[in-house]
Amino acid sequence: MGQGVLEINDCGLRVFIDTTEVLESPGIAVIEPGRIHIGTAAQMRARSHPTQVNNQFWRRLSLESLKSTNQRCRHHADLAYCHLQEISEHCDLPEELVLAVPGNFTREQLALLLGIIKESNMNVVGLVDSASAAIGDLAPAGLQMHVELQLHQTLVSRISVDNQATVKSSESVADAGLCHFQEAWARVFTDAFVMQCRFDPLHSAESEQQLYDLMPQWVSRAMSQGEVLAELDDRTAKISLRQLQDATAPILSRVRAMIENLADSGSVSFISHRWAEIPGGLQIAQRMHLLSRDSTAQSIKNRWKELRSPDSALRLVSSVRAAPESEISLHLEAPSEAVATHLLYGHRALAAQQPLFVFWHEDKFQVTPTPPEHPAATVTNHAGRLALRVDAGIRLMLNGEEIAAPVNLNAGDKIGIADRHDVITAISVERYET
């Protein structure tokens, strides 16, 4: 069936025939004494069989011994082999595959992976770094970033682009993987069910599994509608997009900090399609391009002769031919508004490093860090972003529109009360160093 790509990412190994995705299989295994469930089948059992789960075998690919009574599971490499076998049984593999691997694989892991491949029925004819392959057709000259979400971490790669797109380094953001986002969302949904329905989804393994099975569609609906009515076991709880964003703000803040630390002033961050499914994921960098699902497969197709090894001795290609400048048409995501840092009222500007309270006193607006008896609104700082929450039954206005739900504040936003002229302005105070 011609040519294709196998992309290694423990969020989901993906198989492409030409540039068409035909399978995605998460890097999860449930190990029973006489059987190994792997991929999607394991994902559907993982919460109901927590003591039998292994979702580390790609990240920790090695011959490290595992404590298991299953003879097919001596070490992590055995599970990786089982995963590749499972993939080959669930789709018609192309005759030739190029393997796209993440930049955090060590030399030892790559050697072990190639040994596993030789024992499988996959015909791998090329090996390429995922980051350089993903942006080879898209990146302008300069130092660019590639930001990939993995199951247990985020991988930020620095890529130098001139005639070639060459990986210079890859840095991991620990505890910033898909599973950490999922755990944070699960706490939000669980708390909502407990508070609103007096029902704890984590009281049994079965209901916890249902929670995790349904959560992706709940998060997706919250992102498109601003809130979601989550239904589980005939119970309904309302969760806002803001709650989900707040829960994962510390994770996103660490990813953002890593990108800012590694990037140059003109760098573009090429972020994988998975970030579009994360609330706040499209705000992790100032200059950013969202990659399509098939960007890596498309780039490999365009460079097949360059990447295909002439013999069985595969070598890792970490530098691919870059597209000519004349062929690059790059769409950058709309830059985010300037983030507010202070509240300005009259001649006073208050830094919002701690909660600030807005209230009405003696026919005037007041802003104070001391909680008043009857606040109209509270402004809090979440990972560097200011959020405004209405606290009382006052018709609070933001930029002339009445608000009720929490909102993020950008520089220039004006907070007021209906039929009053006084306003508090959110501003951004920048510090310049000489």
Overview of the molecule:
The relative contact order is 0.11. The strands form 6 sheets. This protein has a 6-stranded mixed beta sheet with strand order 3-2-1-7-8-16, with helices on both faces. It has a 6-stranded mixed beta sheet with strand order 15-14-9-10-11-17. Strands 19-18-28-27-24-25 form a 6-stranded antiparallel beta sheet, with no helix packed on it. β22 and β23 form a beta hairpin. The chain contains 9 helices and 28 strands. It has helices at residues 40-43, 76-90, 107-119, 130-135, 178-197, 205-225, 241-262, 295-302, 304-307; strands at residues 3-7, 13-17, 20-25, 29-32, 35-38, 53-54, 96-101, 124-129, 142-149, 153-161, 164-174, 227-232, 235-240, 269-271, 288-290, 316-317, 319-321, 342-345, 348-351, 356-361, 364-368, 377-382, 385-390, 396-398, 401-402, 407-409, 414-417, 423-427. α5 crosses α6 (205-225) and α5 (178-197) packs antiparallel against α7 (241-262). The chain has 2 domains: 3-176 and 250-327, 2-Layer Sandwich (Nucleotidyltransferase, domain 5); 342-427, Tumour Suppressor Smad4 (Sandwich), CATH 2.60.200. The chain has 434 residues and is of the alpha+beta class. The mean pLDDT is 90. This is FHA domain-containing protein. It comes from Microbulbifer variabilis.
